[in-house]
Each structure stands twice: as structure tokens, then as C-alpha cells.
């Protein structure tokens, strides 16, 4: 059999090929593979499967260099989600994914369906989702359009996860004009199962039926996968109808039904119909199993009339699954789905013949030789060259930037930084996320460096966090890649968890631009180095290229999603001071590094200088020290130094818990030889502020690990003052003043009007208006 | 200037999934209203505003819909009526 | 005491409720929304969640589910029924409790810890507390603004049917302490007969020191002491 | 039986706080639409159903509103139109 054009199919022309995002060479490859001109349907299928989003054609060779092995790794990259063993026979599946482009066009639905997709990736592995995280990047909050995006994205994430009953427990939000034209919305899901329940999306068993499950298929999101592989431009507007609408209630039914199906033994494989919908789910399951498949699109349950095979194959309607059942078990499968008011239609079967064949009734509309559809996908190693402009930014002498007059009072500077939206409290955001459902959240989003979620039925718990400082990666991608992993590890350790493994979401610009590919190559290398040193293999992730707007590429942002393990829930630790009189200690060493800091950006409007050095071996020793101190000594709180440096970290320990602010007195005179602002606001890596009633024990443990540690002060009274002494300089502020800056900044901005259009049209993209959540 | 009352309907675009409408149809069927074929759920806004005349009132509300009230990605709007309250 | 926890397709705090009931030693049975059998449960809990997606109005569709006929019968017989969050919304829709729960005044979902003042400690559900006691529990809802006409509110207040009220940490009712704009800061009410309680906050998520509070246990202990069978 | 399209408005009762309406008014003012006096936000439902005639279609939809679509404690409804699609 061979595919023939359907009546009414457009003729394949070079323009049509280009519209499908295929290069001339890729098209030649396709023709060679088929031995003939493709049909319109085949062109659509290949444009989706060979899109960057599905094929990883620019990233695969570099991703292969990442460490992926570890004795606790049950499933590495290549599946819907990675899986690690966490003891007691339990396994944890987790994965992060981007929904940047859909969210830029329609923030509410874009973010919501992003959460929906990542949930499906986890529960199709057989795991019950127990936690969600999200990592967000926006432009400055002073733009009405940013506020519109923030409001929509946050509500979209909240509404979807809340309805699903999966707590959203951690994440990060960063505001920087580098993301003004192209926000980043990365969602992570973590699920738990028994090891033996692990399910892989590998089709097998000749004659086994292929079943479509869940929502009906409409024309939503056709070409979403290739859309995610293009720059955002004026033309994106015309592509708006592609945006999908989420239905979390149907997803909840699908979750329960899928877990029941997996446990039932009636099925051999299950995969989410995500990007490129039916096409990619069926082709990938077939390729993994090295079998053929035959599908009849007329069997697909549809929502709209007159859909063509092309549309059915490429639709990205949400809340759908593709299942390979055991032959003869169709009725049992239907019965399970019926219990959840869902339907199942047999749409095809696994075949011996090594082909991927799509029929419309009796007519073959697409047919490809076996798994070559997936394996023949082109791979590129583009040119990589650092941008001269960025090198110049890095080499800028930031010491030459003179302090502003107000900075004579370091508390003024501190207050400024605490009210920078990137540093300020994210309570406005996280209150919209149900973080307590499932009665397992020991530490939720708020005054802690990472979330802690119990593993019911055991003494254990998971520590979870996402992290990345894109400004560092922009200025020095190798160092920035290392820091992203090191910071995530520190945060997880501050909550009491041993860093176990990571997933990552690599958000970059157009890889065909040498300066972007340079950033990608270097950041991946840095990430790999840190993962090696910290013993945290990469179990999966996602690459999102083409995060650009007419204003340029976003900061390269390799978001790290870290999973850590607490052997004993009682070790869960938060970031804030708890008891007057506790000693305050600094683990790690202060340095003179001011480059790439939030201080320079927020107070001086400068993005420049060298990011702080990151010694990954030292980071490992720091993590080991902290975990031993949490296990053996009494650690009342632990908080790492990141954005805003040491002064901000200490102030946060005082004020992060709005209900229980404490004063503190610290003496940093041992470092009086450093530049004052580098000491207070520089972002040297490898530092953690802890409080403890037993400083000697902590110092002893640090000494044994060869980690510098110093007692720097004492926790003060509730609602007291923060006093910082540096040599002869003494700075003081009431914590109520600092708390007002920290807690008031985002609510004040978000109370201003939000619109889809900025008056100034800064990004150059014409986006139209949308609702105010009505 | 006269006070006008303008009613606007904002409805899901054709072809865009309407989970709310689907939920209502399903519930109506379950309650025995089996004659219901399809339901779409949108928003109904009533704005009281001052304008020189009817057509100024209407065009002003169109501006509000374009700028703020309707989401052009997923919704269509129509002015349902202009009255003097 | 046997506790029946109704599970609608979109329920999502049924596990939380059952852990809390078990924490005080109750036997728990799960009641499927499509069934008509209460399985001999003494106490019925309608848990939190989004019963049928709640796209129309929270709880509007759930009240017509098969199991609800039995729940209504049980309530009419004087059997204890506890509706938490979505359960409270369903009880109002089913007219087992007066009033309605509307969109939060902020128009945003509210997930946060709140302080409640126990206004009436003489109910089936609150006897383990003292009147005026302050308890810390989480809320997590988008539609929690309790509303009823003025006469109904007055009647509820006068009859002591307002059982829980949002207050600040010192026990004062303040707008800032009310997460949803409910009238009179009402967080939970009981019916005139005293056997049906609805509340928006989640005592079932405050039953373990690891979760940050054990203040919610009192509610389940109260039921146990009065319904022990 | 004929297919009818019935439009229904479900609006907050007078006296019930309408934070959505207020948010819309506030946002419109902030955007410079200062002529707007008040805004109310409700739901707009469009039901396609089979009925013997117009009045049967309308009364059937009234039944749905009484039973499910509107909450009499806080909402009023009105049939906004019956057409044949
Ligand atoms: N988008 C978000 N979703 C959920 N939790 C968030 C989000 N943003 C921040 N948080 C939470 O707020 C707290 C502070 O986060 P962050 O400022 O990123 O900490 P750190 O500087 O230690 O990385 C953490 O508990 C974090 O998980
Ligand atoms: Mg931190």
C-alpha cells in the first residue's frame, strides 16, 4: 500500500513546505525516505515530528553528554518522565516542561494547559502526582502587559492544579526586561508509585488494539509543536486560534482512570497526546517498541464536523491519551473508563509490518517506513560563537560604578533590594495555589528554600525546588549552568533534603544563531559538571528554543527542577529565624564578587560584570556539611545566599514569615577588608545562613568537612531590629520597615491595572486585549 | 451627555472548547432535559455610561471590549443592546 | 463511629478527610457518588474538591447525584453531615443549609492559613472546643464568600448557628483576617437542628504537627464523643 | 419538533455584592474610560434544544433555570431571546 493524495489536498509546493517549517534539505530527506512526493497529510505529520519541540534536532548531541546514571535511577531520559527509587519500594516520577509560547499569546489557557500536560507526563508513568512546581519569568512589573501576563499565568496554573487536587508547593518568579517579549512558563510535576507499578510508553504485541481515551478531538492547537519552534513575531497573532483550552475536570477523570488502567494489567502502554497530538504519541510509542502501527482516523471521536486526517492527526486538543491494550481486553478497558464517564475508541492496532500507516476508512493517507520517521529525523550541530557584546558586558569594570548617595545607609539599599519583585515575597502568587491539599505538605511555598512533601506510609519526605539565574547564564553560560544546579541543590539541602536527581527545562533563543548555540553548549556543559559533582543525574527534561521576540532573545534560562530526599520527615527545615538568642552562623566564605548581581541591576540598572565563581566540589562539601548538621546538631533554620547576597539573605531570615518577624544582630567585621557593597550585596556562591542554639556543634561539623564557618551574630526579639556591624560601620533598621518593603512590593504593583497592550508597545508585538478574570 | 445602558455578550469562539458549556449540557441531560443539544456559556455584561448619543455609547463599549473585556484568542463579543435606563 | 466519605469524580480532599477521621480512631468507608448506599455510616462527610468540575456554580451539579438523595434523607433523620469547602457549597445548593457561597471578593483563589474563633462550642461538631477558642487551619477556595439575605444572617447569628468566624490572631474580626469577604466573617454554619455543619476552612488538613497544626482534630473528636457507636 | 436557540441571562441579584462588576469598572476607569458609571457581570447561556414550539422551548428552559442554572438565593435570570438557528 502507498499513500495517495486526498481529493482537495493542497499541492505540495516549495512554499507549502516552507510554511511547514521544513528546510529544503529536510524535505529532500523526506522524499528520499518515502521514495516519492509526500501527501499533504504526510507533510503535516513530518513537520510536527521533525519540529524542534518533538525531535530535539539541535540539542540531542549535547544532551547526550549529561550524566544520567545512578544506582537509584529507574528511568532516565527518553520516557514521559524520569523515575528514581527513594527507598521502601517507592519510586518518584518527575519532569518539567515549558509552555512559553502558548502562555505569551493566551496566558491563562497557556499556563493551565502547561500544567495539564506535565501532570499527564507523570501519571502515564503509573505515578500519582503529589506535587506541582512552576518557574516563571516575566518582564518588569511596571508594564501593564506584564501584569496581565502574571495575573493570567498565575490564575491558569492555580485553577488547573487546584481542581486536580495536586498541591503547588514551590517554584520561583523572576522579573527582568529580558523576558518582556517572551515570558517563560515552566511547570514541573512530581508523582509517587510503587516501583513495580512503573509503566513505559512502549508499544508491543502484534494485534494489540490502539485506543483513544478521554476528550474528543477538535481543531485546537493544530501545529502547536511547530509553533513552539518559531520566534514570537507579529505573525504569531494570526496563529492565535491554535491556543488550546484546558478542562481540568476531564483531566481529573483521566488521572483516576489512567492509574486504574495501569494497575489493572489490561494495557501494555499509555502515552499522553501532547505536542503534535495523535501523530507524536502513536509514532513515538511505535518507535520505542520497534513495531508498526496502523490507525484509522475515522474512528477517532471528534468534537467538530468535517475534520480532515491532517487536522485529526495534528490536533492538540487537551486531556487525551493513547493506550495500547492487550488484545481481547477492550471491554475491560471500556468498563474502567466508563466508571469515570470517559469513552474509549479503538482506532488502530499494532502491526508486524514495519510501517507507520494512517488510513481514512479504506484509503491510506499517510505511510512511512517503520521507525525511520522518528530515527531519520535530522540532527544539527550548529556553529557556536560567543557574542562580542556579551563578552564586553561581562568584562565591564563594575567597581567603577559609583554608589548612589543614598547608599551611605546600607539599610536604604537593603530596603530597595527587598522590594525588587524578583526578591520580594511571592505571597500574592502562591496564595492562588492550593498548597495544602493531600494533607502531606510539611513545608509549602513561603518562608523556606524548598518545599517538603511527605511520602505517606514512610518516615521519608521529598524536598523540591526549581532554580535558575538567567542573568548569570547570559553573562557566563558555563558558570551560570553550574550555579543553577548548585543553587537548586543548596535550596533542597536547606530544607533538609539530600539532592537526588534533576530534571531540566532549557529555555533558549534561536539555536541557529551562533551566540545562542554557544550559550546552550556552555550552559549544558556547566550543568553537567555540577550534576557530576553533586551526584544528581539528569533523568529528563525539555528544550525550548526560539524564545525570542523582536527585542531579542531572552536570557538563556536552563531551569533546574531538583528532587531531594529526607530520610526522616523530622529533619524538615525552614529558612526563618525562630528563637531569640539562637546563634547565627555563615557556612561558606564571603568574597569581593559584585558582578552580575541583582544589586547592580536593580539599584544601578546595570547587567554586567563576571558572575560569581562556582566551585562545584565546594558546593558538594557545603551540602554535606549542612545535611550532617541538620541530622546531628540542632539547626533551627537554613537559608542560602542568592539574589541580593548576604544582607538580603539575613534580612529574609528575619522577615520572610509575615506572622513572626524577628530582629537580629550581626557583626561582619571579619570581612571589613572587602568592598562593603560586595560583602553585603554581592552574590558569592556556596554560602548558607543558619541559626542554631548549638553553634559549637555546627562549627565542629563544618571543620570536619573543611567548610569555612563563622558565627556572625544572634537572633533578636520578635518585631525587633536588624543591626549590621561592619568594622566601624553600623547599620540598623526595624524589621517592620524591612518587612513592609519585602511583603508590600508585589501586591502594590499587582493592584494596578493590567492590560494586554502596553501603551508604549515596547516589545514590538501587537497583542490585543483580554479580560480581567471575569 | 446622556446615560446609556449597554449590554454585551462575550461568548467562546466557535471551535474553541467550552468546558463550562459541556458541563452544563451533561448535567441537563442527567437531569432528564434530554432535548438539549448543545450549550455555550459566556458572559453577560451590563455597562451604564454617559455618552453623547447611542452610537457613541456603542462605539465606546466596543473600544472597551477590544482593549479589556473580551479575549480575542478565545472569545467573540457582540453588543446586545443599547437602552436608556 | 463509622464515617462515610462521599467521593464525587472531582473530589480531591477525600483522602485528607479520611486520614483525619482515622486519626481519631473512626472507621472510614468511601461512598461513590453513583451509589445509593450509605453503608451504615453514622456520619457523612462531603469533602473538598470540584465535585463535577464546578464550572457552572460550585456544588450546583453535585446536589443531583444519586448518593445525595441518601445524604438528604440521612440529614432529615437527624444524622450528622459535615460539608467541608466544596461540601459546604453542595450543602447550600442542596438547601440543607441556608445561603450561598460566591466568588471570593478578591476574585482570586485563597490558599492560606487562617485563624477561626469557635463561636458555638455546644454543637455536635464543636464540643471538644471551648467557646471563643482560636484555632489555626488552612483555607483553599475560590468561592467561599458566604452570602444570604439580611434576615437569614440575623436569624443565624441569633440562633447561634454561626459556628466559626474568621478573626485575626488576637481573635478580632477584621477585614484583613477574612480571606473571601463572607458576610459577618462567617466561616462555618450549622442548620437549625444542629446536625448539618458546613465550613469553608479545612480542619482535616490541621491534624498533625508536621502539617503545622493539630487544631482541626477537635472537630473530629467532638463527633466521635457524641456519635460513638 | 423544531430546533430552537434560547439565550438566558443570569445576573447577580440586586443588593448582592458584585466584585467582578466592580473590578471591571475600576479597570475601565484606570484605562481612561471615565464615562463608565457602573458595570454588572453575569452569565450568558445559549442553549440549542428541540421543542414543539417557541413557548415550549422557553418554558423548558425556565425549568432548567429554576432547577439548575440559576441560584435563586443570589441570582436572577431572564430569557433574553428565542430564535431558530
Ligand atoms: N511560582 C511559584 N510557585 C510556587 N512557589 C513559589 C513560586 N515562586 C516562589 N515560590 C516559593 O517562594 C519561596 C521563595 O522562593 P525564592 O525566592 O525562589 O527562593 P530562593 O531565593 O531560595 O531560591 C520558596 O518557598 C519558593 O518555593
Ligand atoms: Mg534559597
Radius of gyration of chain A: 26 Å
Strand content of chain C: 25-35%
In the predicted model, the low-confidence regions of chain A spanning at least 5 consecutive residues are: 232-241, 760-774
Briefly note the structural class of the backbone of chain C. Answer: alpha/beta
Q: Average the pLDDT over all residues of chain A and give the rounded result.
A: 92
Question: Can you give the mean pLDDT of chain C?
Answer: 96
Parts with pLDDT < 50 across at least 5 consecutive residues of chain C: none
The tally of beta strands of chain C, per DSSP, is 11
Task: Summarize the structure in words.
The complex is a heterotetramer, with 1 copy of chain A (774 residues), 2 copies of chain B (85 residues) and 1 copy of chain C (229 residues). By secondary structure, chain A is α+β, with helices and mostly antiparallel strands. Chain A contains 26 helices and 28 strands. In chain A, the strands form 5 sheets. In chain A, strands 8-10-7-11-9-12-13 form a 7-stranded mixed beta sheet, with helices on both faces. A 7-stranded mixed beta sheet of chain A has the order 23-25-22-26-24-27-28. In chain A, helix 8 crosses helix 10 (248-264) and helix 22 packs antiparallel against helix 25. Chain A is globular and about 90 Å long. Chain B is α+β, with helices and mostly antiparallel strands and 85 residues long. Chain B has one domain (2-83): Mth169, Chain: A (2-Layer Sandwich), CATH 3.30.1280.10. Chain B has helices spanning 19-30, 54-69, and strands at residues 2-12, 36-51, 75-83. A 3-stranded antiparallel beta sheet of chain B has the order 2-1-3. The longest helix of chain B has 16 residues, at 54-69. The radius of gyration of chain B is 16 Å and the shape is elongated. The two termini of chain B are 14 Å apart. Chain C has one domain: Class I glutamine amidotransferase (GATase) domain (Rossmann fold). Chain C has helices spanning 14-23, 66-76, 86-93, 150-158, 217-227, and strands at 2-7, 27-32, 43-46, 81-84, 100-102, 110-118, 134-141, 145-147, 162-167, 186-190, 196-199. Residues 449, 491, 639-640, 642 of chain A line the site of magnesium ion.
